[in-house]
Write a structure and sequence with these properties.
mainly beta; Jelly Rolls; homodimer
């Protein structure tokens, strides 16, 4: 068993076309021996954006803190702390922190989506 | 994309030998179309216990609220909000809420561990 605190996990800026104000921490993943899926924590500063994009793997998301907007094709959906989002593979999605505090969420992916 | 609020998810008592004061909510899983892994939220009342047990699948856990103790074979580890736990498959583990408020955590498992 490995126990750690998320606040102490290494953080790096997300570098993807159009992404602003967003950092990622890998909390549990194949580098810890996780055989199937990874848990990451994203922190988006107010105004931060992850534009619409898609990929073959799904997301399971839990909003830990803050408010924002999830983009889903042409749709926009308000999201807030305690919300759960399931995004099937290959479906265009994105997020905007249009709130006044950090938008923090867990985002789990299968190991097939781990680019590292 | 499916957006829901975790507080509105169905909750049921965990019925396993020795478990007390513990409820589970399935937040995203194969019944939502999730192809690889499931996100559950556990709420353990003060005094609640999940005794040592093991199974072939791993856990990835994020503590949302409260304090408690994780059991890992002969070891005991303090856990609290913001902690991340990775438990490899087949390793004996359990949890005790020896705090004064609910101990609430997300626990992700591969679909191979979904008994439903």
């Amino acid at each position: 068993m490995k126990v750690s605190n998320a606040d102490e996990a290494a953080s790096s800026e997300v570098r993807m076309d159009g992404v602003t104000g967003t950092s990622i921490q890998w909390l549990a993943s194949k580098t810890d021996g996780a055989p199937n899926f990874a848990m990451r924590r994203f922190t988006m500063a107010p105004g931060g954006t992850i534009p619409l994009h898609d990929h073959p793997w799904e997301h399971e998301i839990y909003i830990l803190q803050g408010k924002g907007t999830a983009l889903y094709g042409d749709r926009k959906v308000d999201i807030a702390s305690g919300d759960v989002i399931f995004i099937p593979g290959n479906e265009p999605h994105g997020y905007i922190n249009d709130g006044k505090e950090d938008l923090v969420f867990l985002c789990m992916i299968p190991n097939s989506g781990d680019p590292r």
